Amino acid sequence: MATVIQIPLQIRFGDIDSYGHVNNVVYLQYLEDARVQLTHTALADAAGAGAEPHHSFYELVGPELFILVGRHEIEYLLPLQFRPTPVFVNIWVTKVGGSSFEFGYSVAEADGGTIYALAATSMVLVNRSTGRPVRLTDAQRHALETWSGDPVPFRRRAAAETALAGAK
Amino acid sequence: MATVIQIPLQIRFGDIDSYGHVNNVVYLQYLEDARVQLTHTALADAAGAGAEPHHSFYELVGPELFILVGRHEIEYLLPLQFRPTPVFVNIWVTKVGGSSFEFGYSVAEADGGTIYALAATSMVLVNRSTGRPVRLTDAQRHALETWSGDPVPFRRRAAAETALAGAK
Amino acid sequence: MATVIQIPLQIRFGDIDSYGHVNNVVYLQYLEDARVQLTHTALADAAGAGAEPHHSFYELVGPELFILVGRHEIEYLLPLQFRPTPVFVNIWVTKVGGSSFEFGYSVAEADGGTIYALAATSMVLVNRSTGRPVRLTDAQRHALETWSGDPVPFRRRAAAETALAGAK
Amino acid sequence: MATVIQIPLQIRFGDIDSYGHVNNVVYLQYLEDARVQLTHTALADAAGAGAEPHHSFYELVGPELFILVGRHEIEYLLPLQFRPTPVFVNIWVTKVGGSSFEFGYSVAEADGGTIYALAATSMVLVNRSTGRPVRLTDAQRHALETWSGDPVPFRRRAAAETALAGAK
After folding, report:
1. Count of domains in chain B?
2. Which residues in chain D have their CB less than 8 angstroms from residue B17's CB?
3. Model ipTM?
């Protein structure tokens, strides 16, 4: 996997549900914050096609557009307990389309040795007024491609698709 | 679709994010509460194979087992705004396995005329001490089968799978 | 207590923390939703001084002003467990000032027999652009006065103040 | 103020409400996480009366007791916006009783130059089985006293109490 950004995220006491683990819903908030941290930080090496290293992806998008979530898929592999030290979200780009793109993630320990969840999100750029999709600019596309990596190694979906394929 | 249970859910002011819509993460909480409302309510017509109508599915599972989420998939179709009246989650069962089963959902208006999101969840029954899967009992299976319905009519996944199939 | 509005609120599974009770933070969200339900519902009997019964307090405030929270005080009296049926927030007004007012609340069973928490909030009306306080209109004041009731019967604060007074 | 512990807290995108600021309810979660970070970290200099520096306050309390919130009081001074860098919660102890104690907090910039909120919490130690208060041990008391500082400089309450005192 070429380029993976690793975002440390504090676990909150309130993330833990009555089962004593990080609640399944909260993982989606971790993914959201990984996206937001990534897009609010200076592009640095991902700058190009007109964007400066000090720009953030969020600034490239600007106040007139929304980046909306179109779809999430998440697999839970291991329960995650409360601890005062952060957990890590690895985030990368798995696809860049005309006005949409996809993030892949793993929620894991810093060294990648333990993976708590794998996930994928489809994002779409839309105009705030009209709600209609807007094409990615070259600078946006350049940043997304710098962040691109392998498909998410989902375990359960792969099994399902193999089964489907076998049934044909 | 044979049997769909419709659960009214209050939208909270805190569900609305800075974009002015129900945040994408919060939908997963709506799904969770639909599951919890369904499983904490008397089985009524879904009782059988030893369960009484006044039992809840939660009681059939008992305190020694967890019902864990293995996987979620969700598609966002329309933004949902704050309002003092509830939104509705339709919930049904799409698959029953040995120790696992799947829920399908739509987040929608009461009459089904407007659908905000479609989703699916894989659940697995595990022992709280060992963490190992536990087989569904006949009474649990009976209830789940009473609640069963059609596959979730995902729009984007369907397109992706068609593309995959075409590529073979 | 003259006029108390009672708002049913659904408990969410995610409201429960690892102690097995509704988390202390979540009560503040219940108070927020009681305020929002009250202010987004038609004024009915609280209309007057120019407001129509079909108006909501929120409409009287309009899009150019914020109603901000200045201060909260909350006492927790009994733990609250998850259940599929709602808990009730009783909400009333304890004070109306020039550009501010105060809500009193109890989080309780419908019949008032069990009280889980008592709380008070100072609200202030401010201009969204300048952030400066804005005077309540006659119609707003009329509604707030219709909703007014006794001071919140805090138990621990009262003790503290008696102690303070005794120490003088 | 003698001893103040400063806890950095990540702001989450989901903390921001439709007004574009950190929601008033979320501040209470920041206070909770400051308490939890403080009590889950090694005591270090606060060890004594039998506790070792590597122990945490949480370990001194043990699994048979709950530390419950009895009361919160919070004043909001300035709105707080989303940013990828943390905000800081300063936390200290303002009172130690027989089986209870009080925390004071400010939510602020690292240098204390900007204060977003001031708050206080009464905590009580109770037995998980009986729900009855349990006396603080010497080691717990020692740690709390090491963390002790000035009363919280509330602005609005002070005004109210002065008024009350004047009325006598």
Report:
1. 1
2. 13-14, 16-18
3. 0.91
